[in-house]
Amino acid sequence: MTLTLSQVTPELVTRAADGDRRALEDIARALERPLFNVARKMLLDPQDAEDAAQEALVRIITHLGQYRAEARFSTWAWRVAVRRILDFREQRAAAARLTFDGFRADLHEGLAADAPERAEDAVLHRQIKNLCSRALLHCLDGDHRIAYILGDILELPSQEA
Question: Which CATH number is 5-95 given?
């Protein structure tokens, strides 16, 4: 029977930290899908989400001895995982920083001003607009990107975001 993350007990964590292979496997299975799901929501690329979730899982498993049962295991695990996923995202963002000038040049490179506009292209146009919005978000540094998302999704005023 596979445990859910909320079913992982401090006793199970202690057994896993002491080398109980079965306990370790149960914890890893309980973490696997939730970690991927949160990484997938935090990162744009499924492969990046898979890599980040794997790194977060390794970080949690290798630091089980640091869990002190002062909070639920899931709370502790989420804190460790989210920090690792954020670090992963920042490392990837720094390595593949897109600039507004570079983005503008890429857009102009494929531009065909004389191309006819067809009704059947409406869906494609919406998809392209979504992709352009994502690309523009990548042009922002981390703090500005988070502020934009908070303002857009949570509808916070710009200063508060």
Answer: 1.10.1740.10
Q: Which tokens belong to 107?
A: 């857009």
Q: Which residue, chain included where needed, has tokens 């981390």?
A: 142
Q: What's the CA gap between 85 and 79, in Å, rounded?
A: 10
Contacts of 84 (CB under 8 A, 6+ apart): 52, 55, 56, 59
Q: Which residues contact 88 (CB under 8 A, 6 or more apart)?
A: 43, 48, 51, 52, 55, 56
* Residues of each domain in the chain carrying CATH 1.10.1740.10: 5-95
For the chain, counts of helices (H) and of strands (E): 7, 0
**Which band of pLDDT confidence, cut at 50, 70 and 90, is reported for residue 95?**
low
pTM for the complete prediction?
0.58
Distance separating alpha carbons of residues 41 and 102, to the nearest angstrom = 26
Nearest-angstrom CA–CA distance, 72 and 51: 25
pLDDT at 97: 64
Cα dihedral sign for 42, 43, 47, 51? Answer: negative
pLDDT per residue as tens digits for the range 136-152: 777 887 788 788 878 87
Distance CA 17, CA 45 (A): 32
